[in-house]
Amino acid sequence: MLLVANWKMAPDTLLEALMLAKETSAVAKKNKIPFVVCPPYIYMLALQKKVALLGAQAVSPYIDMPHTGEIHAKMLQKAGVAYAIVGHSERRHVFFENNTIIQQAVVHLIEKKITPIICVGEQTRDNKGAYLDFVKEQITSAIMLLQKTKIKDVVFAYEPVWAIGKAATRPASVEECREMVIFIRKTVADIAGDKVAAKLQVLYGGSVDEDNAKSFLVDGGADGLLVGRVSTDIKKCIKLIQSI
Ligand code: PGA
How far is the CA of 30 from the centre of ligand 1 (A)? Predict the structure, then answer.
């Protein structure tokens, strides 16, 4: 079980960030839920000792290059970061994080012993199953440069683009979630074998809230959740943690 809070560009001030981290982390700790907080970079060092597990929302695919505005895996490691989200759909679309960039980021993170949380998910669904091929390509290419023995060290998050953020049409149904959790596991099994696939953590993300969170874990077969909007609302986030 893994609960990941993706704060995106919130909150506006460090004071609010400290409060949000403190209140939500305390409830997660009390309920023995591994809780990864992925704050904006600007709050990261201030939260280092305030959260159980620190995560990054993104990472540069390069280590030894001068890239304005970027943060690389070595820096994250030194800052005590344990997890990093890779290939979030907002970054794939707005910042052109493509499959090649993602596979390089994954390699650097694994080298630095940071667990990549690789986001995959289709933009739309069709009746012929083209969305499955699309997601399969995302999965396969993200782990393509890894040695087979290292594939066990990644986490996948199924995040259908149509279910994410304010523009979401709806969350995935538990059936849709379960189908994709199985599909991701099967795709990884074909590459790295059944043992690795059986232990793989597959999360669900996209309009997860305090009312539906538990159903993705119980009926949707997800091993955890990646939560955006609700993770920055103290009351709702606490309710969500308590619900699971
Ligand atoms: P949401 O975002 O929970 O606000 O839909 C999820 C995500 O982008 O990871």
Answer: 24
